[in-house]
Amino acid sequence: MDSTNLAQEITTHLLSRGLHPSPTWLTTTFLPTIRPTTPLPALKQTALFRLLASDITQTLQRTPSSVFPPDIHNATIRERRLAGPIAVQVLDIEDIGRSRWSQVEALEAAERGETTKGREIIRAVRAEDGGEGADADADVAGSGGPHKLVLQDAQGVNVFGIELTAVEGVGVGMNIGAKIVLRDVLVARGVVLLEPGSVKVEGGKIEGVHKAWREGRKERLKSAAGITERG
Amino acid sequence: MGGRILCVAEKPSIARAVAQHLGGQVQARNVPGIQWVKNYEFNYTFPPWGACTVIFTSVAGHLHTIDFDTRYRSWNSCQPGQLFDAPVVTSIDDDKKAIARNIETQARGARTLFIWTDCDREGEHIGTEIRDVALKSNPRLEVCRARFSNIERAHVVNAARNPVPLDERQANAVAARIELDLRIGAAFTRMQTLQLRPMVEQMLESKVISYGSCQFPTLGFVVDRYFRVKNFVPEQFWHIRVMHRKDDIDVTFNWKRGHLFDRMAVTIIFERCIMARTAKVVKMQKKPTSKWKPLPLTTVELQKMGSRFLRMDSQRVMKIAEELYTKGWISYPRTETDQFDRGMDLRKLVEKQCPDGQWGPYAQGLMNGGFNQPRQGRNNDKAHPPIHPVNHVAASHLRDDEERRVYEFIVRRFLACCSEDARGEATDVEIQYGTEIFRTHGLLVLQRNYLDVYPYDKWVSSQQLPNFTLGETFEPTEAKMLDGKTTAPGFLTEPELIALMDANGIGTDATMAEHIAKIKERAYVMTRPRGRATGGGTGLQEFIPTTLGVALIEGYDNVGFETSLGKPFLRKEMELLMKAICAGTTTRNDVVHQSLEQYREVFVRTTRQINVLKEVIIPKIHSPSGPARLNASHLTNLEQLEGYTSLLLHDTLHDSSALDPAARVGRAGRSSERADPVALCAIRGAGFGGPSVANPARHVLDRRTRADAGTEHLRRGLRHFSACVSSARSPPQFGTEETREGFRVTFWCGDGAGHDVRSSGD
């Protein structure tokens, strides 16, 4: 298969997931790295995987329908629907159902290796290959929400999203940089209202951003709660 | 057969009571060398042995004591770490020698030793001590024990007729615990005292900074909560409330989400509710509901309820319960069991309460058909039934009001257990308004049942709801977006502390109250009535750690969280091992060895990093702005003032070169004749005996102190106090005033609260 056809095949596949790759990314970033002998289905998977791990402001095509409209922040518009599909990446997520301080307490207990079950204090056993503290976050991830997110589209516009009804895959345990595709989504006063019917979490993450977000999470929660560290 | 049977109880009161049940009017003979232990002699026919002569005597708790070999007893004799393996010797305390001699004497010529110690682990161990002493003078003695859990007559007779063997495993578990407590306690106490005491001398009441493997986690819970309260940050939240008036009834619907911590989100959601205009009933459910009667009473529950409803601390409640048991009014008060044996005749026990003036008619109602088998809890220690009344006693025959309150609680709880659950009808209505669900709940109490005899539970009907039908739509009368603030948790209360200890395996039901009392006695924590700041007050005590208490826990946490002595983990493991010994899955030696190794590791790490510990303590206690980081803005609440005043007094003590060192080490109250009165005043005043109840902001140091000496020392201390806070925005003022009793020192701080330090001469 020649490279034009190949690019076409892959684009079609990605479009079916709501992701419109930019031709530049496809031809100059992605295609040169693949081995020509790789079967097509595997290539499609690889392309999707790479795209989900990328920063979409660099890798997705900007068309009027695949990004937020220019007046997206206009708060005088009570509500409107955007047909999309609009692919966005998650830059921040916050559980607004719990006080920030209680989240700080939970994080600190997890750092000490403790969790509580009712009144009992339990020593959490660290996973052998704990990686970047994934286990410590697990409990916090189980929190109820709803969540407030910062969503960024392919042109780099940031918009708040509120989880009106619990959406699978959305939680403080999710990766930063994870891709979400919005279809026929409700926007009220410049805020995207997330509901299962209009939201699909595709996953992925942006490694560096994710790491920085994790590391800074406790401090951000603290400062949002209005705590200033004493000397 | 016949012959002589030697019976030995754990304490004299039990010996007398059981002897009277078995022998009627029995003769009491004095025991040489110890006045308050008696030997009761009578004849009794035991089914296994026939008609026998019985000598019924008692010990007074443990006979044996273990200590290190004399070479290791002095504090400077060895490195504290050596105490993990130093040889220990078992001996009989001087004050127990007469008791042991009595048992030896009486064992001679007896055919059987029949042990009547309390049926718990500790009692089993005391039983083996008695056996060992008796076998010394009579190696051929047959040994058995009585299984009983109250000293009601029929129960005692039944126990006398059915002797069982001693449970060696339980005794071994206790032996292991005793050895571990001695070694670990002594090693850490010596180490931390030697290392830390020079730094905190002026803060300290006694010469020892004691360590106990239960004490520290207990203290840890208090410190942990203290920091949660202190560090707490209030946050604003927002919520939506919907009101609707129907059939002349105003109904409030609450947001299913509770509240959210984001104003923008709530505003947007609120607007969408308003835009929706109408709400729709999506759930309308009426169903019978009941409030379950309480579970049969365990020790932990009794202690918790005691502090909550009877206004006594856990130790006091246990002491009174112990007395009620000894007098034969209630069953053994140390039990984990919350299920009554099916075979127990509970009706008979209910019937005994019928004559009572207060709950008699209720008990009669149970007898007339209201009786219901109690709920079964999940715990059974296989030794004792739940705490229950075994006999009725009229309130006038009880010693005082406290005894009456405890007895009344136990009886009411028992009657409640034998009653029916309270019944009612619950109504749940949910409406959808915009995207959101709002709900309201109604309760109609139909039959109070057990609630009639158990005023400690509350369950009352709510306002009646109008009729809603599923699918009905309406335009709510009012919808509001409201805001509020999170509030800090309270300091730990005793019921909470007991619950934490229980859940984390710190101490047993029998010892929890002691551990709590111990950390108070060591001045690691202080208590005060909850709600004092707001003027309300429920009589519940709350715990606040002292500067020293905070420093110790923080210090150990800094040495290593994993196995910090302030955390419950190590002790919990030890407690599980005790249980394993009782179950026969491990042995005493293995357990001692294993636990010692664990604690030795912490010990080694702590000594290696002792500076970490010191670093926490030094700034807290020595810096001019310690304890509790003193400055005027921090001086607004009482507990810091308490820390302040005790610092002041201890500085007074420290400054005085004329003090007899013995006075400082002397136990307050024991050696008052010899000790320097000022020193004593300071020593005893460490906790100020707690704030006085009438005016909690006022501390009265009511000690026998010579007015002249005391005044001078206190003046000096107050100058120091004043200097300490000279940088403060509103330095405290103080004045002294001679009074008839001695003198009074009052100082005022920024908050305007006056604080008295009064000394009365004698």
From TrEMBL, chain A:
Residue span(s) of domain RecQ mediated genome instability protein 1 OB-fold: 68-217
Alphabetized InterPro entries for the sequence: RMI1_N, RMI1_N_C_sf, RMI1_OB
Domain RMI1 N-terminal: start-end pairs: 14-59
Cellular component, GO annotation: nuclear body; RecQ family helicase-topoisomerase III complex
PANTHER family on file: RECQ-MEDIATED GENOME INSTABILITY PROTEIN 1 (PTHR14790:SF15), RECQ-MEDIATED GENOME INSTABILITY PROTEIN 1 RMI1 (PTHR14790)
Domain of life (superkingdom): Eukaryota
Alphabetical list of SMART domains matching this protein: DUF1767 (SM01161)
Any one Pfam family match given in the protein's UniProt record, by short name: RMI1_N_N
Name this protein carries in UniProt: RecQ-mediated genome instability protein 1
Protein family (similarity comment): Belongs to the RMI1 family.
GO BP terms in the entry: double-strand break repair via homologous recombination; resolution of meiotic recombination intermediates
Coiled coil: none
Species: Coniosporium apollinis (strain CBS 100218) (Rock-inhabiting black yeast)
TrEMBL record, chain B:
PANTHER family according to UniProt: DNA TOPOISOMERASE 3-ALPHA, PROKARYOTIC DNA TOPOISOMERASE
Gene3D superfamilies assigned: 3.40.50.140, Topoisomerase I, domain 2, Topoisomerase I, domain 3, Topoisomerase I, domain 4
Family: Belongs to the type IA topoisomerase family.
Superkingdom assignment: Eukaryota
Family annotation (InterPro entries): Topo_IA, Topo_IA_2, Topo_IA_AS, Topo_IA_cen, Topo_IA_cen_sub1, Topo_IA_cen_sub2, Topo_IA_cen_sub3, Topo_IA_core_domain
Entry-linked SUPFAM superfamilies: Prokaryotic type I DNA topoisomerase
Keyword match Isomerase: yes
GO biological process: DNA recombination; DNA repair; DNA topological change
Molecular functions (GO terms): DNA binding; DNA topoisomerase type I (single strand cut, ATP-independent) activity
One term under GO cellular component: RecQ family helicase-topoisomerase III complex
Transmembrane segments: none
Keywords: DNA-binding, Isomerase, Topoisomerase
Lineage: Eukaryota, Fungi, Dikarya, Ascomycota, Pezizomycotina
Catalysed reactions, as listed in the record: ATP-independent breakage of single-stranded DNA, followed by passage and rejoining
DNA-binding keyword on record: yes
Role summary: Introduces a single-strand break via transesterification at a target site in duplex DNA. Releases the supercoiling and torsional tension of DNA introduced during the DNA replication and transcription by transiently cleaving and rejoining one strand of the DNA duplex. The scissile phosphodiester is attacked by the catalytic tyrosine of the enzyme, resulting in the formation of a DNA-(5'-phosphotyrosyl)-enzyme intermediate and the expulsion of a 3'-OH DNA strand.
Organism the protein comes from: Coniosporium apollinis (strain CBS 100218) (Rock-inhabiting black yeast)
The enzyme's E.C. designation: 5.6.2.1
Residues in Topo IA-type catalytic domain copies: 167-603
Name of the protein in its database record: DNA topoisomerase
The Toprim domain, residue ranges: 4-149
PROSITE patterns assigned to the protein according to its UniProt record, in alphabetical order: TOPO_IA_1, TOPO_IA_2, TOPRIM
